[in-house]
Write a structure and sequence with these properties.
- The protein is globular and about 55 Å long.
- It is built from eleven helices and eleven strands.
- Helix 1 packs across helix 7, helix 1 crosses helix 8 and helix 4 packs across helix 6.
- It has 274 residues and is of the alpha/beta class.
- The protein has two domains: 159 residues, Periplasmic binding protein-like II (D-Maltodextrin-Binding Protein, domain 2), CATH 3.40.190.10; 90 residues, Periplasmic binding protein-like II (D-Maltodextrin-Binding Protein, domain 2, 3-Layer(aba) Sandwich).
Length: 274
């Protein structure tokens, strides 16, 4: 049996549903917020884990990225928001909330502002209420919050994913599935293959799978859940490919050049194929 950890967000529960129910390949799953997963990854707690790319860059010596399972794409990046008509911007904010210091959202914000911001970390679903309740606050939102922030009284300051795409030409790498380097390669490849089969099966969308996804999601609205899955589960999730590899490598390069991450040892980033 292999232990794995992932978030309760719809794209992850969609991805893993059939894998965790595969009686021929027993796994033990645990679900946590992405920043908790990032922190656990530093400890090497789980053999397989979801984590932010930004966190992965710090622990390349412990884990290697699977080719399947990543949240990477276009039009799906974090968004910096404020209350409608508040005129608060990065020059005069009183509080700036992010969904975790180790998240790719924070790395993107750091690259956008050249590291001049002084953020406060909150769990991602607590950011919108904070920004709404406080004058002069900004927040970086992720996950399903990007589908609901306008109707909840917020407006966009900058779409950090859009900024990244326009300034680099690359899709934005957000989160990935990684496996510990001490796991034998044949086992790692088998897990990757089974995960790919789980993703294929998920597109059949049986009712029990949607019940599982809904039961774990912060937002229970089916339309929001399906929009979340459609946005964050894409061809890069099936296989990173050359373009996905290039995007990850370039984000790492930019983070190193900016001094936000130390240059890692020269180990392979990606598991590759069998």
């Amino acid at each position: 049996m292999i232990s794995l950890a992932y978030s309760p967000c719809p794209n992850d529960t969609f991805l893993f549903y059939h894998l965790i129910r595969n009686t021929n390949y027993p796994v033990k799953e645990e679900l946590y917020d992405v920043e908790n997963l990032n922190e656990f990854a530093f400890q090497g707690k789980f053999p397989v884990t979801k984590l932010s790319f930004a966190a992965y860059f710090h622990i390349i010596e412990k884990y290697i990225l699977l080719e399947t399972g990543s949240a990477l794409g276009r039009g799906c990046g974090p968004i910096l928001v404020r209350k409608k008509n508040s005129k608060t911007d990065l020059n005069d904010y009183k509080q700036l909330y992010i969904p975790g210091m180790l998240t790719t959202a924070n790395l993107l914000l750091s690259l956008y502002t050249n590291g001049t911001q002084k953020p406060t970390a909150l769990r991602y679903d607590e950011i919108i209420p904070k920004v709404l309740s406080e004058e002069g606050s900004l927040g970086v939102i992720i996950h399903e919050e990007r589908f609901t922030y306008e109707e909840r009284g917020l407006e966009k300051v900058v779409d950090l994913g859009e900024w990244w795409e326009e300034s680099t030409g690359y899709p934005i790498p957000l989160g990935a599935i990684a496996i510990r380097r001490d796991i034998p390669r044949d086992i790692s490849l088998q897990f990757q293959s089974n995960l790919r089969e789980s993703l294929k099966a998920a597109y059949l969308e049986p009712k029990e799978m949607m019940d599982y996804i809904r039961s774990n999601s912060q937002n229970k609205d089916d339309a929001v859940i399906k929009s979340h899955i459609n946005l964050y589960v894409n061809d890069f999730t099936k296989n990173l490919g050359n373009e996905g590899h290039g995007a990850v490598e370039y984000l790492l390069k930019r983070a190193i050049e900016a001094g936000f991450i130390k240059k890692p040892t020269s180990q392979a980033l990606f598991l590759g194929e069998s």
